[in-house]
Amino acid sequence: MNESFQKKELLLLKVATILTVIYAIAAVIIAIISDSMTLMLDGAYSVIDMLVSFAAIFVVRKLNEPPNERYNFGYAKFEPVMTAADGLLLLFLCFMSIFIALQDLMHPDPVEHVGVILVFTATSVFLCLGMGFYMRNAGKRWRSEILVTDSKLWLMEGMVSLGVCIAFSIGWIMRHHPGWDQYTSYVDPLTCIAIALFFIVSPFRILKNSLRDLTDACPSGEIMDKVNGLAKYCCEQHGLAAVEWFRLRKSGRRLYLDVSFATNQNNDVKSLDKISNEISSYLRAEVPELDALIKFAGKNNKASGTLNSSDADRADGTKVAEDANL
């Protein structure tokens, strides 16, 4: 991600955090006034989203810092750690909400100030969906997993607000029809359970993706095919014998590649050094988030290693191995 996108990403996260704080405070206050478990769940969810937004600002700043003596590979894993924590918090919130809502079903209480709830949820539908779609497009354009993950939270919040608005509208209609008003106290806990069950799918998906990054799993097939194609293209362009193997892992927005090229008999150390630099530049241009470790091995030599300056005088040009960091 270039510097311009990094600044825009950080600015968007700050705006989202401010809106989340305002929304969370409003939702909790209205939930307390109206005695609505559904709105309390909505407010608690917004509080979690607020904490995640603060953490996201910290993580994005760290991601943009260069590697150092303590973190030799940078801070890429901070991203999946943050999203995993988000998933765990949401999962806990869903289970707790279902438990409390079941208690409310056994001891139902009427919800007050339904009109205020309807105005608040109708407003939040447009706010949350608008922010969600904007952040999702920005995250895909700027290759920011944090923005994409945060956009899912906003979109979920918008869909939940829509569901709450519809549910309480039905409850308001029931309240004004004789014979149905006795059932309005069940609308709130049932809506809360439905929302929690709707929420519960997303935390599992977030945890699945985060754990894949934390355990150095391979990225998606699309990314694997793209990098493999780039490696083969480099092999053909520089007259190398073949791509012996390549390993690719994903950590947040960063990709880490180990690739080994089989060389021809006429490749010496100097020419391989030039090829390595050209491949590095090409890969960096095509996939800016990729860090590559490039290796060379003689066509008939299955072992590969590092050729340093003291070995160069003894190299015969037929079995060469070199490591180069992108």
Strand order of the largest sheet: 1-2-3-4
Helix content: 55-70%
CATH topology annotation of the largest domain: Alpha-lytic protease prodomain-like
The H-and-E topology, N to C, reads as HHHHHHHHEEHEHE
Corresponding CATH superfamily of the largest domain: Cation efflux protein transmembrane domain
Low-pLDDT sequence parts? 301-326
CATH class of the largest domain: Mainly Alpha
Rough outline: elongated
- Portion in strands: 5-15%
What count of helical segments does DSSP give?
Answer: 10
Number of strands: 4
The appropriate CATH architecture of the largest domain is: Up-down Bundle
Q: What about the largest sheet?
A: 4 strands, mixed
Domain unit count: 2
Distance between the termini: 16 Å
How does this structure look, described?
By secondary structure, the chain is of the alpha+beta class. The chain has two domains: 3-214, Alpha-lytic protease prodomain-like; 221-325, 2-Layer Sandwich (Alpha-Beta Plaits), CATH 3.30.70.1350. The chain has ten helices and four strands; from the N terminus they run ααααααααββαβαβ. The chain has a four-stranded mixed β-sheet. Strand 1 (242-251) and strand 2 (254-263) form a beta hairpin. Helix 2 runs parallel beside helix 6 and helix 3 runs antiparallel to helix 6. The longest helix has 32 residues, at 3-34. The chain is elongated, with a radius of gyration of 27 Å. The two termini are 16 Å apart.
